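Notebook B, p. 112. Complex prediction, attempt 2.
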Amino acid sequence: MERDSTTPPAWRFRPMGEAAVLLEGQPALLANRYVVALTAALEERVIPGIEALVPGVSSLLVRFDPLTVDASEVEVALGKLLDHMEPPAPAQARVVTIPVRYGGACGPDLEAVAELTGLSVREVVAEHCRAVYHVLTVGFAPGFPYIGPLGTALTIPRRQTPRAAVAPGSVALAAGLTGIYPAQLPGGWHLIGRTPVRLFNPANTPPAFLMPGDRVRFEPLADGITP
Amino acid sequence: MTLALRVLRPGMLTTVQDLGRPEAQHYGVPVGGAMDRFALIAANRLVSNPIGAAALELTAGGCAFELLAALMVAITGAELNITLDGEPLPTWTTIFARSGQSLELTERSQPWGARAYLAIAGGLDVPEMLGSRSTSLAGTFGGVEGRPLRAGDLLAVDMPRVDVLREAGRTWPAQARPPYSQLPTLRILPGPHSDLFDSATVAALLARAWQISSQSNRMGYRLEGGSLPNPPTSSIPSHGVVPGAIQIPPDGGPILLTADAQTTGGYPIIGVVVGADLPLAAQLLPGDQLRFDLTTVTEAVAAWKALKAWEATPLGDNGIVGLLAWAAALDLPLVD
């Protein structure tokens, strides 16, 4: 996520029914910075007919009223915004510290992750706590943050068999990202710990505790596995 | 605020719904709201509510309520057998009901129908959260404590009105409803990942009738009828999805996303059901069947425009004739 290039991402529009278009960018992490900035710009409602925005890691789904605008008009308008968008500066984001109780009953997959990565459990925890990450997007479930990118040492595929129910607060990793389950949900990521932080409260503004653009650091609690 | 209903039997799944919270998707909150938005809007209009007022979505009948006040109500959507104190009631009709009466909705009276909408003049009084009163089962908030209704629950209305008595007996015209049927053909547009599907896969999707599996809910319908040939195996980054999108996981069994679908997904999407045909999908239960047919954006927008025109269909009142008829039918004193 370093500002290592002035070349903007390559964008592509894909259709999503008569009332939405999906904007996708490559490479993913550079596109993520633009998606966060573009979402903020569009929340000013500069384009009539736009009804909802759903940012992904490297994409933005734009839902619109097809009786007001059509997809090509939305695409032209988004294209203009992107053309005039400076490469977003590294976000002057707040850094949120998430306390985590690693291992044991809180992190039933920690040992399996150690085995898969060839690290010890303490090294897995140290690696997970080492970097300050970015919240890339919020999706899947209310308040679920996609956080990353993880270093190559912790980049492993999803579990072969997803769990039917993951405990709320579970801190998990898969596919180069780490995330936190805000509620009891089905899930296929490896569970390495649990946080007492509440990630979603519909009475709060915003209701999601973490939002794209935030930065995140994990901190081990003393009564769990520590580095 | 006035108490309106006591739940005697909640049925399989009864929730408070309105038009959902499209603007909360970037918090990971599903759009939610009524599965059959057309029927919700019609029910609200029949009792002169704002179109997005909160109402009950009842799944497959099996429900009973005790009325706790004199109310104007309307029931639309699925054709269920409905009785008020044991007397049959019509659907898609404005009805005056009295305090103490018992309203029962049992099974289908037609070969189709899954979700009925019970609107009450004044609108259900539950707290608005993130711009909607709808129940978010995934977020466990909204509606009544974020959960399906239970026996004993009490529901209130904002402002019960019976001054719309002249409207009692008026009916939503049959020609201004979606063409609900036992085996609907849902029109689809090519999806965002058409390049990942070969023509044989698309042809197989369009060739057969698909059955809604028992593993279906408000998030989506798993479709049974065989696996599609050559499902894509490449993984794609998670991106925003819409209700109506048809995902094809690696096992080739299609999943039709519906109102409570998660906000983002990573399975390739072969096609998207046009908005005008989502009410038809909403009226199917596990075991029912559907078909898909390809359409064009022009036709999809025209169909959406037609649906919006039906939603705005003029509703007269029955005047003194309807009033007298209903007063007689209900043995109702015209003056209190």
